[in-house]
Amino acid sequence: MTPPAATGQRQAPKVAIFAGRSPSERYSVHRGYIDALWAVGAQPVIVPASEGGDGDRILDLVADCAALIVSGGNDIDPAFYGGQPGGGEQDPDPERDAIELEVVRRHTAAGRPVLGICRGIQVLAVADGGTLIGDLPTAGFNGHWDEERQHEPVHDVTADPGTLAALVLSGATVVNSIHHQAVASTGASLRATAWSPDGVIEAVEGPGVLGIQWHPERLAAGDPRHLAPFRWAVTA
């Protein structure tokens, strides 16, 4: 077989994606992420974030990737953002948290693009020095956990014009919602650029960094506009 370089064809850009541990004896990532990356012409590289690796080894693993995706999953341990456990946390995995936060900080400091989805937007906010709302219903925000309709748009979203959030929505104004936590504040590097009608932050962004609270990987099969965040990650 002729090597790709000899044919003049461009190799598919690699995109690293963090895999969680749920259940604890398995690494897992929703297949929608993988399908979406294939659909935009990228080559997925699944990266296990665990105590079996460290920041240097994982950075080496993603060094030749065009971008990094921080996927959904369990709640972030509140100790990482100065919060107090409220009893409603969903299986925090501090080892995963520590690895992802370190790699995100070092990856963004190197000027490399990062896309965070659901838990991923929360990781980006915490890595930036921000905080989270530990439980939306307790804080008075209802209607954000609709797992039965995870493949359907269920609530409105509004993005500031001209932002990355507006770009990746591609004209869509309704998204799905499967989360009980959300970004409360960001640090100095990121800003909120999209919101649900009740004021919950739905997107944050900064140079080469985008976090979205909805799940485009579960909407893209029914509405190809939701491939846009993955296309952005490949070309950012």
List its salient traits.
single chain; 236 residues; alpha/beta; two-stranded antiparallel ribbon; 7 helices; 12 strands; 20% strand; globular
Structural write-up:
The chain has 236 residues and is an alpha/beta fold. 25% of the residues lie in helices and 20% in strands. It is built from seven helices and twelve strands. The protein has helices spanning 4-7, 31-39, 55-62, 94-109, 119-127, 164-169, 228-235, and strands at residues 14-19, 43-48, 67-70, 114-117, 131-133, 155-156, 158-159, 174-175, 182-185, 191-195, 201-206, 209-212. The strands form three sheets. Strands 2-1-3-4-12-11-10-7 form an eight-stranded mixed sheet, with helices on both faces. The protein has a two-stranded antiparallel ribbon with strand order 5-9. A hairpin with a 2-residue loop joins strand 11 and strand 12. The longest helix is centred in the middle third of the chain and has 16 residues, at 94-109. It is globular and about 45 Å long. The model is unreliable at 1-7 (pLDDT under 50).
For the largest sheet, list the strands in their spatial order.
Answer: 2-1-3-4-12-11-10-7
**Average predicted confidence as pLDDT:** 91
Number of DSSP helices?
A: 7
Order of helices and strands: HEHEHEHEHEEEHEEEEEH
Q: How is the biggest beta sheet arranged?
A: 8 strands, mixed
Radius of gyration: 17 Å
Backbone structural class: alpha/beta
